[in-house]
Amino acid sequence: MTAQIIDGKVIAAKVREEVKAEVAKMVAAGKPAPGLATVLVGSRVDSATYVRSKQKACSELGIESYGHDLAEDVSQEEVEALVKQLSADPKVNGILVQLPLPSHLNEEAVLQSIALNKDVDGFHPVNIGRLAQKGREPMFVPCTPYGCIYLLEQAGVKIEGANAVVLGRSNIVGMPAALLLIGKNATVTVCHSRTRDLAGVVRTADILIAAIGKTEMVRGDWIKPGAAVIDVGINSKPDPTREKGYRLVGDVNYDEAKEVAGYITPVPGGVGPMTIAMLMKNTLRAAQIQNP
Ligand code: NDP
After folding, report:
1. pLDDT tens digits, 208-234
2. What is the model's pTM?
3. Ligand 1 surroundings by CB, under 6 angstroms
């Protein structure tokens, strides 16, 4: 069997087009364009790159972006004061605090100072708590897990009743992905670094979401024939044939897995483009809630 490729680039482009059209409609109706504030602390190159990509996406879709770059040694009080000021600013509909924060800062307290109706990253403790509770809805769903579920749904994969295995239990990917799958009536197993017989557990999965950050760790013979495989991992693998000397690969050995799986996302071009697309979708929704 050769898997159907779930093309995240195409699906993300469609989401972005839909957001762009809705933004244009809002503006044509005399409403303000949605606004997204980004808060970047310190000088991590990867974080700065992610924030720039998010700002670029905003400008392509007609969303205003307001960048706030803070020094590495900024105090807890200063970060919280900025987030509270943005929470009260009517031009700002969504607030994104780029994680991870430097270790001297209390991440949970910063996230808690974001107004709930502007929490477009979905990491406010109340939003995560609601995601974990039966019959309650978060205002916003974290973007990468939201993208994973969106890809499954767009590919027509049946989630209800499926055995789903999530590799990884991080706050930003693994755990919210597992909670979303439970909310959609899958039977979910969450694996982590202390899981015994990982391969055996993965073999039970009708749906696999891999988010461990380990280069091509999941092998083809771990995959149940016909399974849907969503590979969140982004790892660089040495490749002397490339100018940069490396290429990006996932947590799943793609060449092996695509011969067994029913559906699979490539890396790059799978989950990656969805994260920003879902952030744009959440920002539009925030603006629609705040300016009905
Ligand atoms: P974290 O490092 O926060 O979490 C990794 C998780 O994987 C942990 O729960 C850890 O277990 C588990 N794990 C690590 N090693 C193993 C192992 N050998 N066997 C089983 N479980 C293991 O990573 P993130 O969740 O932030 O990111 C995961 C991957 O997804 C990374 O490659 C990252 O680059 C990528 N990513 C991609 C995004 C996108 O837009 N496509 C967005 C965010 C992340 P334990 O809890 O026991 O330590």
Report:
1. 999 999 999 999 999 999 999 999 999
2. 0.97
3. 144, 167-170, 172-174, 191-195, 198, 211-214, 232-235, 271-272, 275
